[in-house]
Design a protein that fits this description.
3 strands; Multidrug-efflux Transporter Regulator, Chain: A, Domain 2; mainly alpha; 2 domains
Length: 174
């Protein structure tokens, strides 16, 4: 089998091999972390999009390299969001060294803050301002955005199906 492009979908066996974890671990992560939602075909076969692979790689780094517990990773998802974990996965895939665990200085500052109350840029995973935004939206705006997101997910699913069909056609030609 030829190497797939970076944009190609991965089966669970391909994803497991790429991430160097057993397939049952990916299934477990799907149960434990609701943010992991690979596309499913008839019969329940999973297909992982490049974004799914980034997210899984970020989870792997947090669990295996940074030694967070499952609950710790769930808290990171809650506090920082999916984009944060995906960005971590993308950075690691690009070969960047990432040290997420904040260093707590001996002066008693917590959560990556120093005695002056400011965190060091070196202590944090650098993300885009968009991923770090903590904005309170009016209820009507939030409702419209959620509706739009739901519609975009339907569109994304349709695009995923079309991409799979095109990959099947390309495979049949080879």
């Amino acid at each position: 089998m030829a190497n797939k492009s970076a944009d190609a979908f991965r089966t669970i066996s391909e994803a497991a091999k790429e991430l160097d974890v057993p397939q049952h671990v990916l299934r477990h992560w799907e149960e434990v972390f609701g943010q992991v939602r690979p596309m499913r075909r008839a019969g329940g076969r999973r297909y992982y999009r490049p974004l799914d692979i980034d997210l899984l790689r970020g989870i792997r780094v947090l669990l295996y390299d940074q030694r967070y517990t499952t609950k710790g990773v769930q808290k990171i998802f809650k506090d920082e969001g999916v984009r944060y974990v995906s960005e971590l996965g993308r950075r690691v895939a690009a070969g960047e060294q990432v040290d997420m665990r904040p260093v707590i200085p001996e002066d008693g500052a917590q959560d990556g803050e120093h005695a002056n109350g400011k965190g060091s840029d070196e202590d944090l995973l650098e993300l885009t301002s968009e991923a770090r935004a903590d904005v309170q939206l009016p209820a009507d705006v939030e409702k419209r955005l959620r509706t739009l997101m739901a519609r975009l997910e339907v569109v994304q699913d349709a695009l995923d199906e079309a991409l799979l069909a095109l990959e099947a056609i390309d495979s049949a030609r080879d």
